[in-house]
Structure formats: C-alpha cells, structure tokens
Amino acid sequence: MFTPRWPVSVQLASQLSAAKAADLRSALVPDLKAEDALTAAHELAGEIARDQQLVDAVFQFEQGDADQALGAIGSLLEAQPDWVEGHVVMAQLLSQTGSIAAFELFLSDTIRSAGDDIALVTTCLRLLSEAGRHAKVDALIPVLRARHGDHLFFSLIEAITASETDDLGRADRQFARAAGQGGLLSLPHVRHLIRKGDVTQAATLAEAFVARHPRHQGAWGLLATAWRLTGDSRHDWLVHRPGLVRTVDLGMPAETLAALAVRLRALHATRCQPSFDQSLRGGTQTAGKLFRRDDPELRHLRDLMRRAVRAYIDALPPVDASHPLLGRDRSRFRFTESWSARLVDGGHHVSHVHPQSTISSAFYVTYPQDPRQTGHSGWLAIGEPPDDLRTGLGPLQMIEPKVGQLVLFPSFLWHGTRPFPRGERMTVAFDAVMGE
Question: 241-280: buried (b, 16+ CB within 10 Å) or exposed (e) per residue?
Fold first, then answer.
C-alpha cells in the first residue's frame, strides 16, 4: 500500500533542489570543457525552472485548486513525457482527489505510451501495484513482457499481484522465477509467506531484511507478526516493553479544543476520502504537513506535542542497541509528517504501520458520545495485523479515545481503529524520527 507521505511543496522543493545541487557540482568540475559546462548549465537551468513549476503546482493543489494544479502538471508532462518524477507527482495528486478511475487511467495510459522507457514503465506499474490495482497490473504484464522481454521486475510484480489476490500457487512460482533471475526477495515475499502460513520461512527472510535495513519499521512490523505466530520469545523483547505505548493528557481547555476543531474542519472541507491509497476509510485527511501551517491553534498544538514527545523519549526503557526504537539516538527528534484525519459514521482506519518513521501518534480532537457505541467501537487497536495477512491474531492492546488525549507508540506496531456507528471522530497525528 502507499504510505501517507505524499510529496508536498516544501518537501518536494527540498528533494529537487538537493538533486539539482548535485547536478550543478558535476557540471562545474575543473576538467570539464567550457562548452560542455555551458551546455550542462543551460540544461540545468531548464530543469530548475521546470521543477519550480512543479513545486508551484503542488502548492496550488494544497491550497484547494486541484483542477488548475493538475492542468499545469499535465502541460509539463506533455513537454517532457519521459520525466519520471513528474509522473509520480501527478499520480499521487490524482490519488488525493479520490478518483480511482483517473489515477488508474493516467498510469495505464502512461505505461502504454512509454515505448522503450523501462524506468517510466516500472515506476508506473509499481504505483498501480502499491495502490492495490491488481487487476490492471495483471492485464498489463503480458503486454509489457511482449514489449520488453522477461524483465525481473515483471516477475516480482506478478508475484506480488498473485499473492495479494489469493493466487498463492502462481505467486510461489513467480517468486521462485524472480529468485532465479537474480532478484532479492524481501518484504513482499515475507507478506506472501505469512499469508500462506509459512511463518518460519517468513521470519527467516524478515530477520535477514532487518539485518540489512535495521531502521525499516515496516520490516519490523512483519517480523513481529512472524515471531508472534511462531511463538518466538523475541516478540516479547520487541513489543512488550514498559512505556512503548503511552497516553498523555495534553491539558488543553475545552474552548481551546473547540477552536482547534473549527480550524481543522475548515481544512477538511475541500478534501475527499483517500479511498485507495491510505489507511483511512469513511472520512477525509488533510493535505500537506499540518505543522508547517502558521495557524495559532496549530502552532500551540505543535508546541504541546513537542514537549510530550520529549518526555516520552526521556522515559523510555534503557538503551538496547538492537531494538528498532530503544536503540535510536535520544538526544534529538524531528516531526517528519503531520496531518488530521476526520472519520464520520462508520469510519475507521485499517491496520497499518509507518515504514519511514520512529514514533507515531494519535491526538483526539473530537469523539462522538453516542450511547449506541458498544464494546470497542471507535477504539485504537495496537498490534493487530491487517486482515489481508490472514493471521487470525487480535490486538495486543485496545485504547479508548478520549478528547484531549495523545497516544504515542513505536511506528513498527500495527495500528488501526474500530468502526463507530455515528458522529465525528477527528484526530491530529504525526510521525517523528529520533536521532535526526
């Protein structure tokens, strides 16, 4: 699945400018001929202008003018149809409009018109796969094999598609085929092995992956699941540590919370449900990084959350170098993403992890007081693998939503919410990275 980290104008500008700075350094090396350096400089100037137009369009989209923004990016892509980064941004913005058809049509049309541009083809195919458009991926693979040959990527993507659609035998064959082509089988294969019940092999592969990528929270989430299914004692070492999950009352007065709710509803007013790319079902999510906004209500909330995260880190158990949270540098942290989610009648979040973060959160701004709510309706479920892994495992902990309360937990822990019958459940959430 896509993660909730869409390119926003500030983040995108930073990424593009860093890439262009590297290009500029390359163009100015002393042994480059003057005429070649001049040509490189002209090309780079054109790319910088193009990139700025892309950043401007994304900012325009964030401000609510989706049609103009998408039109501007479309014009850029017409002028440079092989621009991979531009296609990625266009697809991700289309996904935020809530139109599955527009997202799928854009990517499939790009793939068909890409000719021999294998980089553009594989990027677009990966985006379709990550968004769960498996039928479309399956339809495209034979066409692409006929055009490009038996590429390793096609074997891997077909294996993923087959596994995610319960064609487990075909998935086994394609994963084996990819391995024979030199592919490194990693997290998609781990998911497949868990789904088919081969949890010992899943644990072995996941352990090898985290040895190479010790900060990948998604890998730790899958490894935790495999260890739990096999009864490995390391599951307790990973998840059952005091203070990993904590609730904090931020002490916000009722009138302050009410003003925050009014401001957030205005930001949700023009948003639609990101129905096929994120964990949210039955509601809306704000665009961009919420904590970069200059609204006084959000500045105040950010300051309170910063203090709460600092206290959470300071109270963690002793340093454990091999643990994905307890082994991180505690001297500093930074917010990487921030957003608000608004769920209404029957809304919920499917269980997920945040692969690129360290600490994740949920702060309750509003929550319905409905007598028809029974049991754990609307509650936050911690540690419950997603249904599509078919583990049969329940949550490790259930947390009741309370207005004004912040929940903090490691990003590698599965988390989702139970549906609730009626009303508004509005939260602010962030991801934070320790040691950076």
Answer: beebbeebebebeeebbebbbebbbebbeebebbebbbbb
Question: Where along the chain do its domains lie?
Answer: 9-178, 186-240, 246-434
Structure tokens at 140: 């495209």
Q: CATH 3.40.630.30: does it fit domain 246-434?
A: no
The answer to whether 399 and 431 are in contact (CB under 8 A) is no
User: Are 414 and 194 a contacting pair, CB within 8 Å?
Assistant: no
The β-bridge partners of 339 are 429
Q: Which residues contact 128 (CB under 8 A, 6 or more apart)?
A: 104, 107, 108, 136, 137, 140
Q: Tell me: domain 9-178, CATH 1.10.260, correct?
A: no
Q: What are phi and psi of 97, to 5 degrees?
A: -75, -10
Query: pLDDT of 229-279, one tens digit each?
Result: 999 999 999 999 999 999 999 999 999 999 999 999 988 865 454 434 456
Query: What's the order of all strands across the beta sheet hosting 380-382?
Result: 397-399, 380-382, 415-417
- Using the structure block, give the residue that is written with the tokens 């289309």: 94
At CA 70, angle to CA 68 and CA 71, rounded to 5? 60
CA–CA separation, 244 vs 227, rounded Å? 18
Convert the pLDDT of each residue in 137-154 to its tens digit: 999 999 999 999 988 899
| Residues of the chain by 3-state class (helix, strand, coil), percent to 5 | 50, 15, 35
The DSSP call for residue 319 is P
Beta strand 424-434 with 333-349 is antiparallel
Q: Do the beta carbons of residue 394 and residue 384 sit within 8 Å? A: yes
- Mean per-residue pLDDT for 302-330? 97
Provide the residue type at 48 as one letter.
I
Q: What angle do CA 351, 353, 414 make, to 5 degrees?
A: 55
The H-or-E segment that residue 361 falls in is strand 359-366
Residue with tokens 């941004």: 89
Those residues with Cβ within 8 angstroms of residue 216's Cβ, 6 or more apart along the chain or in another chain: 209, 210, 355
Write down how long the chain is: 436
